[in-house]
Design a protein that fits this description.
about 20% strand
């Protein structure tokens, strides 16, 4: 398995760690499995620092777009320092 992940329900966090070679398809497969498990609204951390070979910028972009589209939309709060005129 290219990615191994752990789920912390208490922290609502998924940490996926890669070793050796990981493709965009591997990351998207992981994302699909997490979605099937009902974890789309959990925070996700993908640690790809141990890759033997980097993914292409196009692959990284496609993964980012797909993961961003899967997250349920939430209203954004204004920061404490911002003011409306």
């Amino acid at each position: 398995m290219a990615l191994k992940w752990k789920v912390s329900h208490l922290e609502r966090l998924v940490v996926a760690v890669s070793k050796y070679e990981v493709t965009a398809a591997d990351v998207l497969f992981c994302a699909d499995e997490l979605a099937k498990a009902g974890l789309n609204d959990y925070r996700k951390l993908f640690d790809l620092t141990r890759l033997a070979r980097a993914m292409s910028p196009l692959d990284i972009r496609s993964v980012g777009l797909r993961l961003a589209a899967a997250v349920p939309s939430r209203p954004r709060s204004r920061s404490a320092g911002s003011r409306r005129p």
